[in-house]
Structure formats: C-alpha cells, structure tokens
Design brief:
The complex is a heterodimer of chains A (289) and B (341). Chain A has 289 residues and is an alpha/beta fold. Chain A has helices at residues 9-32, 62-68, 99-116, 139-151, 160-170, 188-197, 210-213, 236-260, 274-285, and strands spanning 45-50, 72-76, 83-88, 120-126, 130-136, 176-181, 201-208, 220-225, 231-235, 264-269. In chain A, helix 1 packs across helix 3. Chain B folds into three domains: 2-76 and 311-340, no CATH class; 91-179 and 289-299; 182-284, no CATH class. In chain B, 35% of the residues lie in helices and 24% in strands. Chain B has ten helices and 13 strands. Classes of the chains: A alpha/beta (289), B alpha/beta (341).
C-alpha cells in the first residue's frame, strides 16, 4: 500500500475544489435532510422501557404500541459508530471527460457527510498499487480523506471487482461500503454480493459521462477501448441509436440486479446536477424524511 | 531472371495506387482515434464510402497497394524471363516443310518444331515462296524451311531460294537419288483459240510412264515466229505456221529472246522441221539429273533467332491475378479481423 507524500499543484487545485464542493453541497443537503442518511449499528437488542419525551421516535416499537396501547422504546446493549469505506474505481475507463472528477466529488460529498456526523470514513482504490486510507473519524481526518481523494488518478486496467474483494479483506468489522465506479466490470455485482454476505451494507454510486449514454456525433471514427486497447471503427451517427439502446438495456439490467440484491443505487452523469441527484438519493435512503 | 511486359503502357494505370495512399494520409491527418471508456456497446457499422477507404494502419495500406500493383502488372502482360525459359524459347522452331511430291512429311520433322506446316505445289519454288510467307507470320522464334526433294536438275536451283530472308534457315534433304525418274520443264508455243500462247509444261519420265503437266499458259499478242513468202504464197505459209503451232513448238530453256523469221519452204512438215531446228535446245544440256551435294550445301544455312527473347506464357498473367486475389482475400480477412478485435 502506498501513500502519496507530495501534493502537486494540480492535486491541490483538485483538493480545494473538492473541499468547496463538499462543503457547499453538504450544507445544501443538510437543509433538506431531517436526519442522517447514515447511522450506526446496534450490537444486540437489550430491553424495552417506557417512552419518555425526547426519545428518538425511530426506536419506538409501534407493534408493541398496537398491542398494548402504550409507548415503548427499544434499548440496545452497545451502539457502534458507522465505519464507511469508499472504494473508488481508478481504472482507465474512468478517465473520460469529467467522469473521474464526478466520482471524486460524489465520494467527497458523501465522505464529508459521514465524517461530519462523527462517523469514520476511509478510502480504497486499487490499480497496479493499492492505496488505502483506513476509516477514521474527526475533522483532521476529513482533510486527509479529501487530500487522498484528490491525489487519485485513473491508471491501469485493474478490474473494479478486485478492489471490492480487497475491501472485503481490509474491513475487519461490519460497515458501509460505498462503491464508486462506472461498473463496466462484469464481475462487479458478484463482488458486491460477496460484501453483502459478509454483513456490510453496500451503496452503489455509478458515475458516467453523458457521452456514454448517447454517442456523440463524430462521423466515421475509430474508438479505442481505454482499458483493453481494442479498436472498432464506426460511423457514429449510424451507430448511435443501437449504442444507446444497448447501454440503456445494460443499465436497466444492472439496476434491477442491484435493487434485487437490496443495494442502494445512485447513478449520476456529468450532465446531472450533483446536489440534486444526491439529495434525491439520500432522501430516498432515509425513507422520505 | 527478370520480368518484361507485353503492354508496358498499362503501367500508367498504376497511378491508381496514389488514391488509397492519399486517402490514408489525409484521413490520418484529420482524424485521430477516440479513446472511449468501453467499446462493448459499439458494433461495427456500415461505413460511408469515404470511411471505408480510411485505412487505419500501415499493413493494410501496403496490402492494398500491393493488390493494385499486382492487378496492373497482370493487365500489362507480365513475362517472367528465367534462364530455362529463355533457353527453351531459343530452341523453339517454326518449320515450313516443303515437299516435292504429295507424300506426307516425316513425323519427326513436324513433331520437333514448335509450329510446323507442310507445303506442296507443282513447282518447288512456289512451295518455297508459300513457306517463307507463312514463316514470316509466326511469332518471333527461330525459323527454318526444310525442303524434301530429289533436287533434280530443272526442278529447282539456287535461284528458287534467293527470296528466302537471311534469318530463315534452309535445310535441304534429298529424298532419293533421282535416277529412276527424270523431270523436265518445257516451254512451248501453241495455237489456241485463234492466238499464240506460251505454255510451260512439266514432263516427268519414269520407267513406266511419261507424265506431262501444264504449269502455266500465257497468251501472246502475236506469234514470236513469222514465215515470209511471196504475196501469193503468204496465206498458205500463215496457215502452215498455224498448223505447226497447233501441234506445239518447243522453246529453248532460256526462252525466246527475239522473234524468229523463216522463209516459207513450201510445205508444212519442212516448215516444222525448220522451226524446230531453230528453237529446240539440245537434250544433253539437261544432264546431270540431280543437283550435286556441293551445290545443295552452298544453298543450305543455319537459322538465326529473331526478336527479343520474350517467351510469352499466359500462365504468368494468371499467376499475377492469383496473387492479387490471394492478397485481396488477406485484405478482407485483415479488415474484418481489425474491425472485430
């Protein structure tokens, strides 16, 4: 595992940009959210006690209320902090247009949200080297988290599934895994299921460039696969309808698979408003609160 | 080993090679490959005409240029000149076999030549002339005229071969010694259909028979023989001359150089003898019967090869077409492979 020791001017610019986006977006999101979209896990249910004003309504047992006509609050033996690991895809397929920057911003905003509520956030990216920032909490760690995120650059063609498998090995306790990728790797759903079976909560955040949904008009052109280097020559105008149909069919299939497995799924493109997309996702995640 | 072309002007069409090269360079300059996150959702589409010509890599360009060049070379009539082929070409012979009589030519004379044909006419010199004309129409190759004859004196002589071009070889093959047969050509003046006619006859004498064959007849404006008489006897003298000519009056071998005038002797038989005495050549002048070997050797000569050694072989053209076709198949395979890789 390697850690960058020198921050370049470009990385510093990216860091400032990420900090600004994270701060402004998180502020905007806080106004729309009544409670945290992420919360910790209880180790074990302990007992009921009578409801007292001020108790969190989330812990009121409404079924018991229906049976006894009295309010009871559930109590837990121990409550842990949330430990969130952001697994960011740094393969070369992410290096197109503003796609990787979008992935960085998504991770920065969600990481800031997690760290702001005193939970822990870490960062993992796997290319030809493994870059891992273990989950920690605190404001100092937020700066470190954003700096680490700013230094990540797409390179290599390591499958994203490998990064998810590495995440499963690194996480020693149950936590939240937020996978940020374009999800072109065919094995990624299997890797996500494996994480879920290990007890982790999985959030799928897909970042795409608008060109990937609708092929741009370039005339007859040779496309080179960013990761495999394979080429195909197409007349983009003629190929666009078929391409769009195949991409949308794939996205529908992917979303259906992820939702069937109970994963929260967020898709953002470079043409979308990031704050609006995140708000919609987080509101849905908190049950419409 | 070298390559020559029957129609080198066709190589001007090789300028067509410039087309794919120009398209290649132009498209390369204006269009760069686009790196895309994934091409798994892209399928090769039917390209426009311009895009189809957009050669993406150098091997494909070289392949296409080679195809065009081979096709042009095939159209230009390629000839691969190998030493073996050149030697074989030089050994090719076009042979005109001249026969004195109607007997068939020996098989080996015909088989050993690339092209061969037999010629037989009543007069050997006519058959030789026919043979020379035919030889001149053949493709450039060694030409030879072979005369199969007894070479009897009178039937042929060196003058018959004077018109044979120098590069045409002459081979004279004596078929018999001529002792069993004699042959003469006789010129006569006869009276036919009210006018004097010069007639050339061949007289063939064998132990069993005598054959007279008329070779040609030329009408004369006036008889080359005149009989003078007194005005009273002139009609009788003219009638007697016509009677003598009807029987035929033989001319000397050299022909009749000047008209002959005799005095009217008084009767037809005496007139006939008088004229024959003036005209007929001595029989002894026709001997010996055949031309000597030394004279034949002076006529014979080796053939000289003509033209540049261009052994035309249609197989060469087919070879070039086959190569072009093979490269075309390779090009299609290459292109499809590149599109689907």
């Amino acid at each position: 595992m390697s850690r960058p020791h020198v921050t370049t001017a470009a990385e510093l610019s990216t860091l400032r940009d990420l900090e600004f986006v994270a701060r402004t977006t998180v502020e905007g999101l806080r106004h729309g959210l009544h409670r945290s979209p992420f919360h910790g896990y209880s180790a074990e249910f302990s007992q009921y006690r009578h409801y007292r004003p001020g108790d969190d309504l989330r812990y009121v047992d409404w079924k018991r209320f229906a049976r006894t006509d009295r309010f009871y609050t559930r109590q837990f033996r121990e409550t842990t902090n949330l430990s969130a690991l952001f697994v960011v895809d740094v393969s070369l397929s992410m290096d197109y247009g503003g796609k990787f920057a979008l992935a960085q911003r998504m991770a920065a905003v969600l990481g800031t949200l997690v760290l702001d509520q005193d939970d822990a956030a870490g960062l993992l990216s796997v290319s030809d080297t493994v870059n891992y920032l273990p989950p920690r909490s605190g404001h100092r760690h937020l700066t470190l988290f954003l700096r680490e995120l700013a230094t990540r650059r797409p390179r290599g063609a390591t499958p994203f599934a490998a990064a998810l498998e590495r995440a499963g090995l690194l996480l020693t306790q149950k936590g939240l895994v937020i996978a940020v990728s374009d999800f072109y790797d065919a094995d990624v759903v299997v890797a996500l299921r494996r994480l879920a079976r290990m007890g982790h909560e999985v959030v799928v955040a897909q970042a795409l460039d608008v060109d990937e949904l609708a092929l741009p008009e370039l005339g007859a052109v040779e496309f080179v696969d960013a990761e495999t280097g394979r080429t195909v020559v197409v007349e983009s105008g003629a190929a666009a309808p078929g391409y769009a149909a195949r991409v949308h069919a794939w996205l529908s299939r992917l979303e259906a698979d992820l939702r069937r497995d109970g994963f929260d799924y967020l898709r953002v493109t470079t043409g979308d408003n990031l704050e609006r997309s995140l708000r919609r996702f987080l509101v849905a995640r908190t049950g419409g609160a | 080993m070298g390559v020559t072309f029957l129609q080198p002007a066709v190589w001007l069409t090789a300028l067509a090679v410039a087309l794919p090269v120009a398209i290649h360079l132009l498209t390369r300059a204006t269009r760069k490959p686009v790196t895309f996150p994934t091409i798994q959702f892209l399928e090769t589409t039917r390209l426009s005409a311009a895009a189809r010509h957009a050669i993406q890599d150098r091997p494909l360009l070289l392949l296409r240029v080679a195809i065009v060049l081979l096709a042009v070379a095939a159209l230009a009539g390629p000839i691969l000149v190998t030493p073996a082929r050149e030697a074989a070409w030089r050994a090719r012979v076009a042979r005109a076999v001249v026969l004195e009589d109607r007997t068939a030519a020996p098989e080996d004379e015909l088989r050993s030549a690339a092209v061969a044909r037999t010629f037989a006419r009543l007069r050997l010199r006519d058959a030789v002339a026919d043979g020379v004309r035919w030889l001149e129409q053949q493709d450039p190759k060694t030409r030879e005229i072979v005369v199969l004859s007894a070479f009897r004196r009178g039937a042929t002589d060196a003058a018959d071969f004077a018109a044979v071009p120098g590069h045409v070889g002459i081979r004279l093959v004596r078929t018999s010694d001529g002792s069993s047969m004699r042959e003469r050509e006789i010129s006569k003046i006869v009276w036919r259909e009210g006018r004097a006619v010069r007639v050339l006859e061949r007289l063939t004498l064998t132990p069993d028979s005598t054959e007279v064959r008329e070779l040609e007849a030329t009408a004369l404006d006036e008889a080359p023989v005149r009989v003078t008489a007194t005005p009273a006897d002139q009609p009788a003298a003219d009638a007697a001359l016509r009677a003598v000519l009807r029987r035929g009056l033989r001319l000397p071998p050299a022909g009749l150089l000047e008209p002959i005038t005799v005095r009217w002797p008084g009767d037809v038989e005496t007139l006939a003898k008088l004229l024959e005495a003036r005209l007929e050549a001595p029989v002894d002048a026709w001997e010996p019967e055949t031309l000597p070997d030394a004279e034949l050797a002076s006529i014979a000569r080796e053939p000289a090869p003509q033209g540049s050694p261009t052994p035309v072989d249609a197989g060469d053209r087919r070879t070039f077409w086959a190569l072009a076709l093979a490269l075309l198949v390779a090009e299609i395979w290459f292109r499809k492979g590149a599109a689907w890789k």
